[in-house]
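Progress note, sequence design subtask.
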């Protein structure tokens, strides 16, 4: 793959000449020159300007789709050739939803890197919906998600189980409670993740199974990350609903306490998401390693 193609893909994925220049460590005029040369070669406009924004033209969208496929073939070739003699080489881009990327997958990736040091690993994170969009856009090779819904053009497989639990600060109002009834739970101030997060989607599904709706809860605040919620609940007279993996240390150090909700539990499957169709050798290797790794707390 020539360098002009790489420049084009970087501009297309950022929709910005300046951001592409930063990502590639070259000047913005150099990016512009490469794009003009590519447009001159194909005799089409690949981008159009609308105010301060740039967008892909129809020809640009076709070029992006084809070049992404070619880029994936190059990665597969590199991995296949690099695997000769049991020396695996190549690149793998993993996307993971917030809970997985912060509390579960880093140790797996560290162990994978130790075993296969010639495979370049990249970790991207965001909420489950964002990771599925990156997967479909071929920005990542595999996604690890925590949502309950599925998209028809993505295939899923479970790799572990996780539980969403209610926790409170050990030093605040609910810190002395061991359990509460479902009726009490509806009145307790609660802090949860933002819309689009897999955690919130799973909470909604569990509520419906218990003949409750999200509107029945006393939601005090939505926050955009698990770490923000943990810091917030430490000074909050209420509870947070979080993955048990994300609060393991705080529970162990008695900074947070778990509150059981009688007759109500939220257990979910964390899943591997892949595009339908061909699976690269690097993905197969990583999935096999992940499924064989001991992920217990």
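Output:
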């Amino acid at each position: 793959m020539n360098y002009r193609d790489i420049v084009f893909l970087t501009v297309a994925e950022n929709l910005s000449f300046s951001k592409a220049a930063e990502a590639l460590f070259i000047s913005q005029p150099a990016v512009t020159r490469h794009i003009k040369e590519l447009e001159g070669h194909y005799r089409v406009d690949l981008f159009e300007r609308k105010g301060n924004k740039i967008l892909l033209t129809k020809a640009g969208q076709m070029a992006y789709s084809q070049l992404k496929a070619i880029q994936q073939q190059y990665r597969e070739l590199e991995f296949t050739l690099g695997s000769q003699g049991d020396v695996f080489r190549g690149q793998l881009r993993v996307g993971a939803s917030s809970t997985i990327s912060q509390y579960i997958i880093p140790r797996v990736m560290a162990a994978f890197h130790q075993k296969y040091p010639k495979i370049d690993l990249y970790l991207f994170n965001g909420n489950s919906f964002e990771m599925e969009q990156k997967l479909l856009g071929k920005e990542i090779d595999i996604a690890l998600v925590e949502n309950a819904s599925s998209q028809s053009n993505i295939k899923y497989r479970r790799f572990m189980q996780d539980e969403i639990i209610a926790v409170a600060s050990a030093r605040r109002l609910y810190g002395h409670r061991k359990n509460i009834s479902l009726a009490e739970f509806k009145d307790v101030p609660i802090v949860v993740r933002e819309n689009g997060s897999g955690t919130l989607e799973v909470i909604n599904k569990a509520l419906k199974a218990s003949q409750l709706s999200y509107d029945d809860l006393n939601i005090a605040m939505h926050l955009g990350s698990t770490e923000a919620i943990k810091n917030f609940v430490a000074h909050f007279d209420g509870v947070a609903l979080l993955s048990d993996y994300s609060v393991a240390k705080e529970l162990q150090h008695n900074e947070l306490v778990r509150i059981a909700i009688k007759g109500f539990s939220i257990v979910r499957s964390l899943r591997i998401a892949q595009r339908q169709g061909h699976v690269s050798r690097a993905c197969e290797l990583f999935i096999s390693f992940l499924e064989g790794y001991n992920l217990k707390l």
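The mean pLDDT is 88. Work on this subtask will continue into the next period as scheduled.
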